[in-house]
Specification:
Spore Coat Polysaccharide Biosynthesis Protein SpsA, Chain A; 6-stranded antiparallel sheet; 5-stranded mixed β-barrel; 11 helices
Amino acid sequence: MDGTIQPVILSGGSGTRLWPLSRKAYPKHLLPLVSQHSLLQETVLRVGKGARFEPPIVICNEEYRFAIAEQLREIGVAPHAIVLEPLGRNTAPAVTVAALMAAERSPSALVLVLPSDHVVLDEAGFLGAVEKAARAARDGAIVTFGITPKEPETGYGYIRAGAALNRAPGCFKIARFVEKPDRATAEGFLAQGGYYWNSGMFLFRADSYLAEIERLARPILTGCRAALAESSHDLDFLRLGGDAFREVPSISIDYAVMERTEAAVVVPADIGWSDVGSWSSLWSIGDRSDAGNVLIGDVVTLDVRDSYIRGDGHLVAAIGIEGLVVIATEDALLLAPKERAQDVRQLVERLEREGRPEAIQHRKVDRPWGSYQSIDAGPSHQVKRITVKPGAKLSLQKHVKRAEHWTVVRGTARVTIGDKIFTLHENESTYVPVGSVHRLENPGHIPLDLIEVQTGKYFGEDDIIRIHDDYGR
Protein backbone atom coordinates (compact mmCIF):
# COMPACT_ATOMS: atom_id res chain seq x y z
CA MET A 1 0.00 0.00 0.00
CA ASP A 2 2.99 2.34 0.45
CA GLY A 3 3.02 5.00 -2.26
CA THR A 4 -0.65 4.59 -3.09
CA ILE A 5 -3.70 6.44 -1.79
CA GLN A 6 -6.66 4.87 0.02
CA PRO A 7 -9.89 6.54 -1.15
CA VAL A 8 -12.68 6.75 1.43
CA ILE A 9 -16.14 7.49 0.07
CA LEU A 10 -18.63 8.97 2.54
CA SER A 11 -22.01 7.91 1.25
CA GLY A 12 -24.68 9.39 3.48
CA GLY A 13 -27.32 12.02 2.78
CA SER A 14 -31.02 12.44 3.49
CA GLY A 15 -32.36 13.18 0.02
CA THR A 16 -34.32 16.34 0.83
CA ARG A 17 -32.75 19.20 -1.14
CA LEU A 18 -33.23 17.66 -4.61
CA TRP A 19 -36.76 16.39 -4.05
CA PRO A 20 -38.76 15.04 -5.84
CA LEU A 21 -36.03 13.24 -7.79
CA SER A 22 -34.09 12.53 -4.59
CA ARG A 23 -36.00 10.87 -1.76
CA LYS A 24 -35.12 9.81 1.77
CA ALA A 25 -35.06 6.16 0.67
CA TYR A 26 -33.01 6.98 -2.46
CA PRO A 27 -30.90 10.13 -1.93
CA LYS A 28 -29.03 12.23 -4.46
CA HIS A 29 -25.69 10.39 -4.45
CA LEU A 30 -27.47 7.37 -5.96
CA LEU A 31 -28.92 9.41 -8.84
CA PRO A 32 -27.46 10.16 -12.31
CA LEU A 33 -27.74 13.94 -12.11
CA VAL A 34 -24.94 15.16 -14.41
CA SER A 35 -24.06 12.08 -16.51
CA GLN A 36 -25.18 8.52 -17.13
CA HIS A 37 -23.51 7.57 -13.85
CA SER A 38 -24.74 8.38 -10.37
CA LEU A 39 -22.82 10.88 -8.24
CA LEU A 40 -21.51 7.94 -6.20
CA GLN A 41 -20.28 6.16 -9.34
CA GLU A 42 -18.66 9.35 -10.65
CA THR A 43 -16.82 9.79 -7.33
CA VAL A 44 -15.55 6.22 -7.34
CA LEU A 45 -14.51 6.36 -10.99
CA ARG A 46 -12.59 9.58 -10.31
CA VAL A 47 -10.22 7.63 -8.06
CA GLY A 48 -10.40 4.32 -9.86
CA LYS A 49 -7.93 4.71 -12.68
CA GLY A 50 -4.41 3.33 -12.71
CA ALA A 51 -2.33 2.02 -9.85
CA ARG A 52 -2.31 5.30 -7.90
CA PHE A 53 -5.38 4.46 -5.84
CA GLU A 54 -6.36 1.45 -3.75
CA PRO A 55 -9.88 -0.01 -4.03
CA PRO A 56 -12.20 2.32 -2.11
CA ILE A 57 -13.59 2.03 1.39
CA VAL A 58 -17.24 3.08 1.22
CA ILE A 59 -18.96 4.10 4.46
CA CYS A 60 -22.73 4.27 4.36
CA ASN A 61 -26.01 3.77 6.17
CA GLU A 62 -27.19 0.17 6.02
CA GLU A 63 -30.43 1.28 4.36
CA TYR A 64 -28.52 1.99 1.13
CA ARG A 65 -26.17 -1.00 1.22
CA PHE A 66 -27.66 -3.05 -1.60
CA ALA A 67 -28.10 -0.07 -3.92
CA ILE A 68 -24.48 0.97 -3.33
CA ALA A 69 -23.17 -2.55 -3.85
CA GLU A 70 -25.14 -2.84 -7.10
CA GLN A 71 -23.89 0.52 -8.38
CA LEU A 72 -20.28 -0.47 -7.70
CA ARG A 73 -20.88 -3.75 -9.53
CA GLU A 74 -22.31 -1.86 -12.52
CA ILE A 75 -19.04 0.08 -12.97
CA GLY A 76 -16.83 -2.94 -12.31
CA VAL A 77 -15.37 -1.76 -8.99
CA ALA A 78 -14.69 -4.25 -6.18
CA PRO A 79 -14.32 -2.12 -3.02
CA HIS A 80 -11.92 -2.86 -0.22
CA ALA A 81 -14.93 -2.67 2.08
CA ILE A 82 -18.48 -1.36 2.34
CA VAL A 83 -18.77 -0.31 5.98
CA LEU A 84 -22.26 -0.03 7.48
CA GLU A 85 -22.95 2.52 10.18
CA PRO A 86 -25.79 1.50 12.51
CA LEU A 87 -26.76 5.19 12.67
CA GLY A 88 -25.37 8.49 11.41
CA ARG A 89 -22.65 10.05 13.57
CA ASN A 90 -21.46 12.84 11.22
CA THR A 91 -18.12 12.84 9.44
CA ALA A 92 -15.50 12.63 12.21
CA PRO A 93 -16.43 9.09 13.35
CA ALA A 94 -16.79 7.86 9.76
CA VAL A 95 -13.37 9.24 8.83
CA THR A 96 -11.85 7.80 12.01
CA VAL A 97 -13.15 4.31 11.22
CA ALA A 98 -11.66 4.53 7.73
CA ALA A 99 -8.32 5.80 9.07
CA LEU A 100 -8.16 2.90 11.53
CA MET A 101 -8.84 0.43 8.72
CA ALA A 102 -6.17 2.00 6.49
CA ALA A 103 -3.65 2.05 9.37
CA GLU A 104 -4.11 -1.69 9.88
CA ARG A 105 -2.69 -2.19 6.38
CA SER A 106 -0.07 0.56 6.63
CA PRO A 107 0.19 3.21 9.40
CA SER A 108 1.62 5.76 6.96
CA ALA A 109 -1.06 5.16 4.33
CA LEU A 110 -2.37 8.27 2.60
CA VAL A 111 -6.16 8.50 3.04
CA LEU A 112 -8.29 10.58 0.64
CA VAL A 113 -11.76 11.37 2.02
CA LEU A 114 -14.43 12.24 -0.56
CA PRO A 115 -18.16 12.86 -0.11
CA SER A 116 -20.09 10.79 -2.63
CA ASP A 117 -22.59 13.52 -3.54
CA HIS A 118 -20.32 16.19 -5.03
CA VAL A 119 -19.64 17.07 -8.66
CA VAL A 120 -16.12 17.62 -10.00
CA LEU A 121 -16.12 18.62 -13.66
CA ASP A 122 -12.33 18.98 -14.07
CA GLU A 123 -10.97 15.52 -13.29
CA ALA A 124 -7.42 16.33 -14.37
CA GLY A 125 -7.44 19.41 -12.14
CA PHE A 126 -8.72 17.32 -9.25
CA LEU A 127 -5.95 14.73 -9.65
CA GLY A 128 -3.39 17.52 -9.85
CA ALA A 129 -4.70 19.00 -6.59
CA VAL A 130 -4.44 15.56 -4.96
CA GLU A 131 -0.78 15.34 -6.00
CA LYS A 132 -0.07 18.75 -4.45
CA ALA A 133 -1.87 17.76 -1.25
CA ALA A 134 0.03 14.47 -1.05
CA ARG A 135 3.34 16.32 -0.67
CA ALA A 136 2.09 18.06 2.47
CA ALA A 137 0.24 15.01 3.79
CA ARG A 138 3.39 12.88 3.68
CA ASP A 139 4.98 15.41 6.05
CA GLY A 140 2.11 15.02 8.52
CA ALA A 141 -0.32 17.72 7.38
CA ILE A 142 -4.07 17.19 7.39
CA VAL A 143 -5.02 18.72 4.07
CA THR A 144 -8.37 19.99 2.87
CA PHE A 145 -9.23 21.26 -0.60
CA GLY A 146 -10.38 24.88 -0.86
CA ILE A 147 -12.54 25.62 -3.89
CA THR A 148 -11.84 28.85 -5.75
CA PRO A 149 -15.09 30.81 -5.30
CA LYS A 150 -16.96 31.97 -8.38
CA GLU A 151 -19.62 34.01 -6.57
CA PRO A 152 -20.38 35.27 -3.04
CA GLU A 153 -22.05 32.01 -2.02
CA THR A 154 -23.66 32.08 1.43
CA GLY A 155 -24.37 28.36 1.64
CA TYR A 156 -20.73 27.28 2.11
CA GLY A 157 -18.19 27.70 4.86
CA TYR A 158 -14.99 29.52 3.88
CA ILE A 159 -11.28 28.93 4.51
CA ARG A 160 -8.67 31.69 4.67
CA ALA A 161 -5.29 30.62 3.32
CA GLY A 162 -2.23 31.63 5.34
CA ALA A 163 1.49 31.14 4.82
CA ALA A 164 2.72 28.98 1.94
CA LEU A 165 4.48 25.70 2.71
CA ASN A 166 8.02 25.73 1.33
CA ARG A 167 8.27 21.94 1.01
CA ALA A 168 4.86 21.57 -0.66
CA PRO A 169 4.26 24.08 -3.47
CA GLY A 170 0.59 24.99 -3.86
CA CYS A 171 -0.19 24.22 -0.18
CA PHE A 172 -0.90 26.80 2.53
CA LYS A 173 -1.39 26.78 6.27
CA ILE A 174 -5.00 27.50 7.21
CA ALA A 175 -5.28 30.89 8.86
CA ARG A 176 -9.00 30.87 9.55
CA PHE A 177 -12.24 28.93 9.18
CA VAL A 178 -15.41 30.96 8.64
CA GLU A 179 -18.97 29.72 9.13
CA LYS A 180 -21.49 30.36 6.34
CA PRO A 181 -21.36 34.16 5.95
CA ASP A 182 -24.03 36.67 4.98
CA ARG A 183 -23.87 38.02 1.45
CA ALA A 184 -22.01 41.23 2.31
CA THR A 185 -19.33 39.27 4.13
CA ALA A 186 -19.02 36.80 1.25
CA GLU A 187 -18.66 39.66 -1.22
CA GLY A 188 -15.87 41.04 0.95
CA PHE A 189 -14.08 37.69 0.90
CA LEU A 190 -14.14 37.60 -2.91
CA ALA A 191 -12.92 41.19 -3.16
CA GLN A 192 -10.10 40.57 -0.68
CA GLY A 193 -8.97 37.24 -2.15
CA GLY A 194 -7.33 34.36 -0.35
CA TYR A 195 -10.66 32.86 0.77
CA TYR A 196 -11.93 29.52 -0.52
CA TRP A 197 -15.06 27.42 -0.19
CA ASN A 198 -14.72 24.54 2.26
CA SER A 199 -15.20 21.44 0.10
CA GLY A 200 -15.31 18.73 2.79
CA MET A 201 -12.60 16.72 0.99
CA PHE A 202 -9.45 15.71 2.91
CA LEU A 203 -6.09 13.99 2.46
CA PHE A 204 -3.81 12.86 5.30
CA ARG A 205 -1.57 10.11 6.58
CA ALA A 206 -3.57 7.65 8.65
CA ASP A 207 -1.21 7.83 11.61
CA SER A 208 -1.10 11.64 11.55
CA TYR A 209 -4.90 11.91 11.63
CA LEU A 210 -5.26 9.27 14.33
CA ALA A 211 -2.69 11.06 16.51
CA GLU A 212 -4.68 14.30 16.22
CA ILE A 213 -8.07 12.70 16.85
CA GLU A 214 -6.62 11.02 19.93
CA ARG A 215 -5.24 14.33 21.18
CA LEU A 216 -8.26 16.45 20.35
CA ALA A 217 -11.26 14.09 20.56
CA ARG A 218 -10.23 10.86 22.26
CA PRO A 219 -13.82 9.57 22.85
CA ILE A 220 -14.27 9.39 19.08
CA LEU A 221 -11.16 7.27 18.63
CA THR A 222 -12.01 5.03 21.58
CA GLY A 223 -15.57 4.46 20.37
CA CYS A 224 -14.54 3.81 16.77
CA ARG A 225 -11.90 1.28 17.85
CA ALA A 226 -14.55 -0.52 19.90
CA ALA A 227 -17.05 -0.44 17.01
CA LEU A 228 -14.45 -1.99 14.70
CA ALA A 229 -13.54 -4.60 17.31
CA GLU A 230 -17.23 -5.54 17.56
CA SER A 231 -17.80 -5.46 13.79
CA SER A 232 -19.06 -8.44 11.83
CA HIS A 233 -19.15 -9.46 8.19
CA ASP A 234 -22.59 -9.70 6.55
CA LEU A 235 -22.48 -10.86 2.93
CA ASP A 236 -20.33 -8.20 1.20
CA PHE A 237 -20.60 -5.71 4.05
CA LEU A 238 -18.78 -4.89 7.30
CA ARG A 239 -21.24 -4.00 10.07
CA LEU A 240 -19.82 -1.80 12.80
CA GLY A 241 -20.64 -2.80 16.37
CA GLY A 242 -23.92 -1.04 17.08
CA ASP A 243 -23.64 -0.60 20.85
CA ALA A 244 -20.15 0.89 20.65
CA PHE A 245 -20.88 3.15 17.68
CA ARG A 246 -24.00 4.60 19.30
CA GLU A 247 -21.80 5.92 22.10
CA VAL A 248 -19.48 7.78 19.71
CA PRO A 249 -20.00 11.58 19.76
CA SER A 250 -21.73 12.92 16.64
CA ILE A 251 -19.49 15.68 15.29
CA SER A 252 -17.97 16.80 12.00
CA ILE A 253 -14.30 16.44 11.19
CA ASP A 254 -14.13 20.24 10.87
CA TYR A 255 -15.22 20.82 14.46
CA ALA A 256 -13.44 17.80 15.93
CA VAL A 257 -10.07 18.25 14.21
CA MET A 258 -9.58 20.79 11.45
CA GLU A 259 -10.52 23.93 13.38
CA ARG A 260 -8.35 22.87 16.36
CA THR A 261 -5.23 21.32 14.89
CA GLU A 262 -1.97 23.06 13.99
CA ALA A 263 -1.57 20.58 11.12
CA ALA A 264 -4.42 21.98 9.00
CA VAL A 265 -3.41 22.84 5.43
CA VAL A 266 -5.42 23.93 2.39
CA VAL A 267 -4.80 23.33 -1.32
CA PRO A 268 -6.67 25.87 -3.48
CA ALA A 269 -8.46 24.02 -6.27
CA ASP A 270 -10.35 25.34 -9.28
CA ILE A 271 -11.82 22.02 -10.41
CA GLY A 272 -15.44 22.67 -11.42
CA TRP A 273 -16.68 21.60 -7.98
CA SER A 274 -20.23 21.76 -6.66
CA ASP A 275 -21.97 20.06 -3.77
CA VAL A 276 -25.17 20.17 -5.89
CA GLY A 277 -27.05 21.34 -2.84
CA SER A 278 -30.07 22.61 -4.76
CA TRP A 279 -31.74 22.56 -8.16
CA SER A 280 -30.35 26.03 -8.85
CA SER A 281 -26.79 24.71 -8.39
CA LEU A 282 -27.50 22.03 -11.00
CA TRP A 283 -28.70 24.78 -13.33
CA SER A 284 -25.50 26.74 -12.72
CA ILE A 285 -23.23 23.83 -13.72
CA GLY A 286 -25.51 22.47 -16.44
CA ASP A 287 -25.16 22.68 -20.21
CA ARG A 288 -27.31 25.76 -20.81
CA SER A 289 -28.88 26.69 -24.12
CA ASP A 290 -28.67 30.15 -25.70
CA ALA A 291 -31.84 30.99 -23.77
CA GLY A 292 -30.18 29.95 -20.52
CA ASN A 293 -32.18 26.76 -20.08
CA VAL A 294 -31.06 23.34 -18.86
CA LEU A 295 -33.51 20.80 -20.27
CA ILE A 296 -33.31 17.12 -19.34
CA GLY A 297 -35.67 14.40 -20.51
CA ASP A 298 -38.66 14.81 -22.85
CA VAL A 299 -39.05 18.58 -22.59
CA VAL A 300 -40.65 20.97 -25.12
CA THR A 301 -40.52 24.72 -24.52
CA LEU A 302 -41.83 27.93 -26.08
CA ASP A 303 -40.42 31.31 -24.97
CA VAL A 304 -38.75 29.88 -21.87
CA ARG A 305 -35.63 31.43 -20.36
CA ASP A 306 -33.10 30.75 -17.56
CA SER A 307 -34.92 27.68 -16.26
CA TYR A 308 -34.06 24.15 -15.16
CA ILE A 309 -36.66 21.70 -16.46
CA ARG A 310 -36.39 17.96 -15.96
CA GLY A 311 -38.90 15.30 -17.00
CA ASP A 312 -38.42 11.84 -15.57
CA GLY A 313 -40.31 9.65 -18.03
CA HIS A 314 -43.08 12.09 -18.96
CA LEU A 315 -43.43 14.85 -21.53
CA VAL A 316 -43.00 18.26 -19.89
CA ALA A 317 -44.21 21.27 -21.91
CA ALA A 318 -43.61 24.86 -20.79
CA ILE A 319 -44.63 28.23 -22.25
CA GLY A 320 -43.50 31.72 -21.33
CA ILE A 321 -41.76 31.02 -18.02
CA GLU A 322 -38.48 32.46 -16.76
CA GLY A 323 -36.14 31.58 -13.90
CA LEU A 324 -38.06 28.51 -12.74
CA VAL A 325 -37.19 25.01 -11.60
CA VAL A 326 -39.62 22.42 -12.96
CA ILE A 327 -39.09 18.80 -11.89
CA ALA A 328 -41.61 16.16 -12.98
CA THR A 329 -41.45 12.59 -11.70
CA GLU A 330 -44.02 9.84 -11.92
CA ASP A 331 -45.74 10.81 -8.69
CA ALA A 332 -44.79 14.45 -8.02
CA LEU A 333 -44.29 17.83 -9.71
CA LEU A 334 -42.14 20.62 -8.27
CA LEU A 335 -42.42 24.24 -9.43
CA ALA A 336 -40.24 26.90 -7.81
CA PRO A 337 -38.29 30.06 -8.66
CA LYS A 338 -34.59 29.25 -8.85
CA GLU A 339 -33.85 31.65 -6.00
CA ARG A 340 -36.24 29.69 -3.74
CA ALA A 341 -34.73 26.28 -4.57
CA GLN A 342 -33.12 26.04 -1.12
CA ASP A 343 -36.62 26.01 0.42
CA VAL A 344 -37.36 22.54 -0.96
CA ARG A 345 -36.07 21.12 2.33
CA GLN A 346 -38.88 22.92 4.20
CA LEU A 347 -41.43 21.54 1.77
CA VAL A 348 -40.18 17.98 2.30
CA GLU A 349 -40.32 18.44 6.08
CA ARG A 350 -43.98 19.39 5.72
CA LEU A 351 -44.69 16.35 3.57
CA GLU A 352 -43.05 14.15 6.21
CA ARG A 353 -45.15 15.71 8.98
CA GLU A 354 -48.27 14.99 6.93
CA GLY A 355 -47.20 11.38 6.42
CA ARG A 356 -46.95 11.67 2.64
CA PRO A 357 -45.12 8.68 1.13
CA GLU A 358 -43.79 10.89 -1.67
CA ALA A 359 -41.36 12.39 0.84
CA ILE A 360 -39.75 9.02 1.48
CA GLN A 361 -39.67 6.92 -1.66
CA HIS A 362 -40.54 6.72 -5.33
CA ARG A 363 -43.22 4.46 -6.69
CA LYS A 364 -40.39 2.28 -7.98
CA VAL A 365 -38.49 0.80 -5.04
CA ASP A 366 -35.17 -0.98 -5.53
CA ARG A 367 -34.47 -4.21 -3.68
CA PRO A 368 -31.37 -6.46 -3.72
CA TRP A 369 -33.29 -8.97 -5.85
CA GLY A 370 -34.67 -6.36 -8.30
CA SER A 371 -37.45 -3.81 -7.85
CA TYR A 372 -41.17 -3.27 -7.45
CA GLN A 373 -43.34 -0.41 -8.64
CA SER A 374 -46.78 0.59 -7.42
CA ILE A 375 -49.22 0.85 -10.33
CA ASP A 376 -52.59 1.25 -8.62
CA ALA A 377 -54.04 1.12 -5.13
CA GLY A 378 -57.43 1.26 -3.43
CA PRO A 379 -59.03 0.43 -0.06
CA SER A 380 -58.98 -3.32 -0.71
CA HIS A 381 -56.34 -3.80 -3.41
CA GLN A 382 -52.86 -2.82 -4.58
CA VAL A 383 -51.23 -3.54 -7.95
CA LYS A 384 -47.45 -3.75 -8.40
CA ARG A 385 -45.08 -4.49 -11.24
CA ILE A 386 -42.28 -6.70 -9.93
CA THR A 387 -38.93 -7.23 -11.66
CA VAL A 388 -36.59 -9.98 -10.45
CA LYS A 389 -32.97 -10.10 -11.64
CA PRO A 390 -31.70 -13.26 -13.34
CA GLY A 391 -30.76 -15.82 -10.70
CA ALA A 392 -32.27 -13.78 -7.86
CA LYS A 393 -35.06 -14.71 -5.48
CA LEU A 394 -37.24 -13.04 -2.90
CA SER A 395 -37.35 -14.19 0.70
CA LEU A 396 -39.36 -17.23 1.75
CA GLN A 397 -42.23 -15.42 3.45
CA LYS A 398 -45.90 -15.17 4.30
CA HIS A 399 -48.51 -12.46 4.83
CA VAL A 400 -51.15 -12.22 7.53
CA LYS A 401 -53.40 -9.58 5.98
CA ARG A 402 -53.31 -10.04 2.22
CA ALA A 403 -53.49 -12.52 -0.63
CA GLU A 404 -51.60 -12.15 -3.90
CA HIS A 405 -52.26 -12.96 -7.55
CA TRP A 406 -49.19 -13.25 -9.82
CA THR A 407 -49.19 -13.03 -13.64
CA VAL A 408 -45.91 -13.42 -15.56
CA VAL A 409 -45.49 -10.95 -18.44
CA ARG A 410 -41.83 -11.69 -19.27
CA GLY A 411 -39.37 -14.39 -18.37
CA THR A 412 -39.78 -17.49 -16.22
CA ALA A 413 -40.79 -17.73 -12.57
CA ARG A 414 -40.10 -20.53 -10.12
CA VAL A 415 -42.86 -20.39 -7.51
CA THR A 416 -43.04 -21.93 -4.06
CA ILE A 417 -46.44 -22.04 -2.34
CA GLY A 418 -46.58 -24.25 0.73
CA ASP A 419 -45.03 -27.60 -0.19
CA LYS A 420 -45.50 -27.09 -3.95
CA ILE A 421 -42.77 -25.82 -6.29
CA PHE A 422 -43.67 -25.14 -9.92
CA THR A 423 -42.75 -22.99 -12.93
CA LEU A 424 -44.73 -20.20 -14.57
CA HIS A 425 -44.07 -18.88 -18.08
CA GLU A 426 -45.28 -15.76 -19.85
CA ASN A 427 -49.08 -15.26 -19.71
CA GLU A 428 -49.44 -17.78 -16.88
CA SER A 429 -50.62 -16.94 -13.37
CA THR A 430 -51.13 -18.28 -9.84
CA TYR A 431 -52.76 -17.37 -6.53
CA VAL A 432 -51.08 -17.06 -3.13
CA PRO A 433 -53.67 -17.39 -0.30
CA VAL A 434 -53.45 -15.38 2.92
CA GLY A 435 -51.01 -16.99 5.34
CA SER A 436 -49.38 -19.28 2.78
CA VAL A 437 -45.59 -19.64 2.90
CA HIS A 438 -44.33 -18.63 -0.55
CA ARG A 439 -41.33 -17.56 -2.58
CA LEU A 440 -40.69 -16.12 -6.04
CA GLU A 441 -37.47 -16.86 -7.96
CA ASN A 442 -36.05 -16.09 -11.39
CA PRO A 443 -34.19 -19.17 -12.70
CA GLY A 444 -33.71 -17.66 -16.16
CA HIS A 445 -31.14 -15.50 -17.91
CA ILE A 446 -33.37 -12.46 -18.54
CA PRO A 447 -35.23 -10.29 -16.01
CA LEU A 448 -38.52 -11.69 -14.74
CA ASP A 449 -41.43 -9.23 -14.93
CA LEU A 450 -44.78 -9.98 -13.38
CA ILE A 451 -47.90 -8.17 -12.25
CA GLU A 452 -48.87 -8.69 -8.62
CA VAL A 453 -52.43 -7.93 -7.52
CA GLN A 454 -52.75 -7.81 -3.73
CA THR A 455 -56.20 -8.11 -2.14
CA GLY A 456 -57.06 -7.56 1.49
CA LYS A 457 -57.27 -4.72 3.99
CA TYR A 458 -53.61 -3.84 4.59
CA PHE A 459 -50.66 -3.75 2.19
CA GLY A 460 -47.73 -2.30 4.14
CA GLU A 461 -44.24 -3.77 3.81
CA ASP A 462 -44.38 -4.66 7.52
CA ASP A 463 -46.91 -7.39 6.67
CA ILE A 464 -44.01 -9.58 5.56
CA ILE A 465 -42.95 -12.42 7.84
CA ARG A 466 -39.60 -13.59 6.47
CA ILE A 467 -38.79 -17.23 7.11
CA HIS A 468 -35.53 -17.29 5.13
CA ASP A 469 -33.77 -14.51 3.27
CA ASP A 470 -30.57 -14.66 1.22
CA TYR A 471 -29.84 -10.99 1.98
CA GLY A 472 -29.91 -11.16 5.77
CA ARG A 473 -32.93 -8.91 6.21
